Fold:
Amino acid sequence: MSLKHEHELSFIRKYIFSMDHKIIGIQFLFMSLLFMIVGGFLAMIVRWQLGFPDREIPFASHLPESLNPADPAHYNAVFTMHGSIMIFLVIIPILAGAFGNFLIPLLIGARDMAFPKLNMLSFWVALPGGLIMASSFFVEGGTAATGWTAYPPLSADPQYTGVGLGQTLWVVSVLILGTSSIMGAVNYITTIVNMRAPGMHFFRMPLSVWALFITAILQLMATPVLASALGMLLFDRTLGTHFFNPAGGGQVLLWQHLFWFYSHPAVYIMILPSMGFVSDIISTFSRKPIFGYKAMVFSLVGIAGLGFIVWGHHMFQSGMNPALGTAFMISTMVIAVPSAIKTFNWLGTLWRGSIHFTPAMLNALAFVSTFIVGGLSGIFMASTPVDMFIHDTYFIVAHLHYVLFGGSLFGVFGALNYWYPKMFGRMMNSTVNTIHWVLTFTFFNLTFFPMHILGMGGHMRRIYDPTLYEFLKPMQPMNEFISISAFLLGASQLLFAGNFIFSLFRGKRAESNPWRANSLEWSAPSPPPHLNWGDKLPTVYRGPYEYSSPEVAEDYLPQNRPLIGAPTPSRTVPAPARA
Amino acid sequence: MHWLPEGVSTYSPSIDTMFYVILAVTGVAFIVTEALLFYFALRYRARQGVRATYTHGNSRLEMIWTIVPAVMLVLLGLSSRRVWGDIKGRIPPTDQEVVIVASQFDWEIHYKGADGQFDTPDDVVIHNDMSLPVNKPVKIRLRSKDVIHSFFVPAFRLKQDAVPGLTIDVWVEATKTGTYEIACAELCGFGHGTMRGQLTVLEPDEFQKWLKEQEANVVPAEAPPA
Structure:
């Protein structure tokens, strides 16, 4: 890799079939954001149907036939695609694909990923995967309509849903997206293990890198299991096998075990990176070292390890042996401990800090605040007897949105605010993004908090007209309230989208280190050139959280700044708590 | 204070109690952590000339906030286990059995009929309308003809998937007469949201009278359960 090489690249090699990790990261970012618009729009349709089941959507005549929820079969298709797109094409690719690609080499001081071609391939596999999913809107019979969990036999035999090709395209799409995930994961792990800058010990890595590292390990270990399940489902649908058909000797519950063996770790794939970003943002804007760095690392590892032995908590009422349910309940209760450790350490970082309320920080604080709710509500479901009542109700819907929207997405908003200057070399307007944060945080809570109360009343998930049930009728005003809040939540995103696009062209030019932060990416220009740094890679002298250090007059001390007279420390400077 | 709907099975009070215990524990954790978050954010906002405290953590604090939640959670797990064991660990001896065969989008409810046997031509089969005696344990055998459904009676706090290829036994003892609703809690196709049934809990003598009437109405050609 010659440093002069970049000047010889054509536009296509530089921006489309690029092997530069930053461009690939931005490609993933744009792909995910575009799909986020689609997924968000589908959420609006879902909320219209639930809030106002008797009224047709005003713009229904302009929608493709397969999206009009007035037909109950289409309602199933709409929420199925909302969930599938948000999980497989928004949250996972934006966290692992976009931020994983952009940040890992910059934060560890590498010029690029270990396997740039594989990296390019991972995007050019993901995009067709997404397009295949999107194409199912336009095929006969419409899209998959079996929920993002696609439980067979419903998903295995077209006679049960009336959806033929759409469901098959869904299976193929998720298989392809999984392949892309595995390519990314191999690359991230190799890069982090082998290509850290001189002095960048494992315990000097920013928590974002740790989180992306652990996430990559989870992806590498869990995704093949999903692939095996999807393969069997595909064979059942297309080749006439009976893996999940009891009439042919198959086992219905096998799918759920395999699916959740992937999808529970996947829940952590969808939250761990955000936890890392939030840790970095909170430390930076508190001007204070992260509290309990090693506890933060070990709790990430703990969540990942325990994450592989809790999948059965999705199956307490599935017909799985109740004794097994007890075992999964205990492991699930225990996994809440590392989450608690992280929360307390974030609070500890804020304690006696010097807090700057930038939009990135506000979103990070929103993450902590909503993650507390999502984490605590999980304890209800972990309890097997309580789950008997609230399983498959809106309590679950509330919980998962507190974790995935309140958690992952506030983390994403924080990270976008924080790293936007590095990605694009321009600043976003912070006033607009502060207003966006106020509106999003408010309407998010107004939308999703009342869903807990619906769930406590027994309100089932995935029904298209709650007013059909006597016991749900009294809750309909709350459903209307939730829907209106959801529309306002959706509308608030226009502010962010507008600011994002406007700032790409008209934003103030960003300096290399606008937040006075310590980690290595801020030592590169904004945006960093091809191969990130000039002739010489940075050397790392300390951990990434040396804010307000007594050794210097400023309140930050970059990882790569040598201190004159001070000996080069051979180990991590701080002696963090050992948990 | 009752946030959950009225529960009318023998085990609904213990499930509800478990819910409220968790609500109390998580409620305290919620208030304390959110209050600290809010307080720290206000109290330690950046001010001219005030430098953040340079500290990397505190081992004793880490120990405390690891051990305290761990103990609390394991205690919650153990007490949940007891309730779960009472519900799932055994089925109380009873001669009252019902077979429910779910299909898209219908609950087929089978009673033994006059001969006291299932799978005979005199079985009573009723669609989407179930009756049970009060204060008597009833064993429910759940089956499915096609896809996964989930038998959900919110007033009983009872939910159990009906899985094709399996027969899953659950039980319930109703504590109050009245009319309640059955819903399907597992996505089962386009009519999932309409898979509604009615459940009537009757005094034992009324139930027997009702059952006799149904037995008299049986058309012997009725097919036995699948």
The first strand of chain B starts at residue 97 and ends at 103. Chain B touches chain A through 86 residues (CB under 8 Å). The mean pLDDT of chain B is 93. Chain B has three helices and ten strands.
